[in-house]
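Justification of computing resources. Each target in the renewal requires a structure prediction run like the one illustrated here; the chain below, 475 residues long, is used simply to show the kind of job we budget for.
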Amino acid sequence: MPFVQKSQGIAAYRHSAAGQLDIAGGLDVCYTATPSAPVEPAPETPCLNLSLRQNRQQLSRLHVSEQQEVYPGMLLAEGEQTHLYCPCSGVVQVMNPDKRKRPGNIEIIPAEEPSDAPIISLEENAPLAAKRQFVRQMGVWDSIRQGMLMAPPALDDQPNEIIVRCVFAEPGQIPGSMVIRRHLQEFIRGLKYLYEIGGSYAPIVMTVPVQSGSLGRQIREQLRGQAFVHISVVPIRYPVENPLLLATLLGRERGLGPDHFWVVDPQTVIAMTCAMEKKQFWSHRYVAIAGPAVRQPVILSARLGAPVGELTKPYLRDDVAETPAFIRGGLYSGKRAVPEEGLRYGDYAVWVIPETEGPELLGWMHPGHERPSWTRTVLSGLLGKRTFQARTLLRGAKRPCIGCGFCRQVCPAGLYPHQLHRLVTHDCMEEAEQLGLLNCVECYCCSYGCVSKLELAQDIIHARRALLHQEAKGL
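Resulting structure tokens:
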């Protein structure tokens, strides 16, 4: 699929004098949500709720039935490109494949003692296809992002480069440095396995912050002599971790489109080592629990499918209502979740925000010193960088677009979100494509910067994915 370059494209791409890969626009708002070590074990959950919608794909082909015993690495369901494997030994308790009732789910009761599971083996000199199939069965493959859809690659895909994103600027996300420090040797060996799995001698590009400190020196020392790993310095500014933005920025330098790249994070690299050396299924991952409804941000080692309500319950403040708002994945790019919803691939943070009902008393009189804003028409824009609390309250009413251009300023892709939004809402898809609709990196910055409180990103992203789906089907 060709990468559209009919608009100005990524205006953010440039290198500073120090060789740093920089971005224009983006967000740099500080919230009281940065988690820190040590890592705590997640609370035990009586069941695992595995959604039948993973990586934006509906898994329609089921391979298990109710009351069936399952084991780690067993295929539960699959879609066009995504496969759902069982993370533990247990019994399938409930199956709801009806996607009309929230996309459907498989509920598993974990076994108290691991049952006898078939041994998943891999020959030492296995071909590349067998190694990739093994990595997928170990639960690692579906965490790799590729192409315009940021979906898992096909087993026969050949990337030109593999990007390891070690910098995360979205509020509440787990610092990549924390993960690497805890598993430095596994991370280094995982880079070698990743290079082997990539095939075609695709080099690896690691993104590190400007001030990487002692950890940066350790990584450089460990990688000395490894010519297949290159380091790219990036700023700590959202959305620097966005897979499509990284692939686009680095691809422009090499004359490639974003669909020539794979993008992974440190946890995927470490999981690659566990799969190749220990033959262990990647069932646990580090998840940050953050937000104003939490007493203190924490990092948990949680299992895939653990309900977000059960995970966060022990850490909620006493004055929080029973049903706060749960956001999977991050404050800017995350999705609203119900308490019973389980963790999915790519959920490395869960935000918990007190639910606010009804309008705020005399809210129109507040100058806005406690609410972050891109514009300086409220008090917070004049007070400089401060620490804010996230809220669900919508102060004021939604208004029509006023053409202020703030969404253009905050967009890291250099697009015109207000014009794109007008075109896609009027079904002018050809004009929207010419204006760069496919260049959207789905970071939601435009919605955040909109002073009219319009959901610009939601409509633009929906139209972009529909257009990509039509092109993939040859329509």
